[in-house]
Amino acid sequence: MKQIRSILVVTVFLVGFSKTTLADTIIPKRERMSLQISPLSFLDFFNGSSYKLGTEVRIFRTFYFSINGGGYFPNFNALKNMKGGNLDFRIKYRFPHSNSAVSISYFYKKQSFEYHDAYEEEPDVPITVYTRKTVSCFNLNYEHRVGQLFRKGYIDVFAGFGMRLRDVKSSFETKHDFDRLVNGGDSQSLYLVLIPGQKTWFNLNFGLRLGYYLF
Question: H or E stretch including 144?
């Protein structure tokens, strides 16, 4: 988390510094920099509820760079004592005189958490599964500005596809251990979260951002 906070601070400083160093002929005076939040991240029941704050800067007339980062609430769902952070980098091209854009993004998250359950043969004996997970995603996205909030605010929606690289280390060693669980043994989503190993698969993503222009 300290590394993620440091990256965010440095990025915000560089973005602000660019305001005074880039000529107005390169970057128009309006819509140069905005702050962003991702409200849907609060409702992620599968990966854990997270909070995110970011910034987007206009680096040329139709090109934008954004970075968003944050952490996780510790006990939002069945995964307890959640710790970690996430980062999202994005380069966006907005079509001239349009509310539509395309972007290339990279997402990284690192998590550690516990899952509490019991085995069917000993339902009264609690067990704790310790898990550490890192995920990297590369995506191509379509974005669209669907509305405004007050005078300087905006609402962006996006959807895209790409590749997800997953690396999980867990106190589970085999699928047989998972199948013996009292509560979670039939959950495919929980299986993907807890079973250790490395895997790469196709990724689909969608989301919503609320932004406010600072200048």
Answer: strand 122-149
Q: Which pTM does this prediction carry?
A: 0.81
CATH of domain 2-213: 2.40.160
CA separation for the pair 201, 164 (Å, rounded): 5
* Distance in angstroms (rounded) separating the CA atoms of residues 141 and 135: 18
**Whole-number Cα distances in Å, 156 to 28, 153, 206:** 20, 10, 11
Q: Percent of the chain having pLDDT more than 70?
A: 86
Q: Which two tokens stand for residue 82?
A: 């959640």
Instruction: Tabulate helix, strand, coil % of the chain (nearest 5).
Output: 15, 60, 25
User: Cα separation of 96 and 39, whole Å?
Assistant: 28
Tell me the residue type at 108: Y
Question: Whose structure tokens read 């190993």?
Answer: 197
Q: CA–CA separation, 203 vs 143, rounded Å?
A: 17
- Token pair belonging to 92: 């966006």
Handedness of CA 90, 150, 30, 4 (dihedral sign): negative
Confidence band for 195, pLDDT divided at 50, 70 and 90: confident
- Estimate to the nearest angstrom the gap between the alpha carbon of 161 and the chain centroid: 14
Q: What's the confidence (pLDDT) of residue 192?
A: 81
Q: Exposed (0-12), middle (13-18) or buried (19+): which is 93, by Cβ within 10 Å?
A: middle
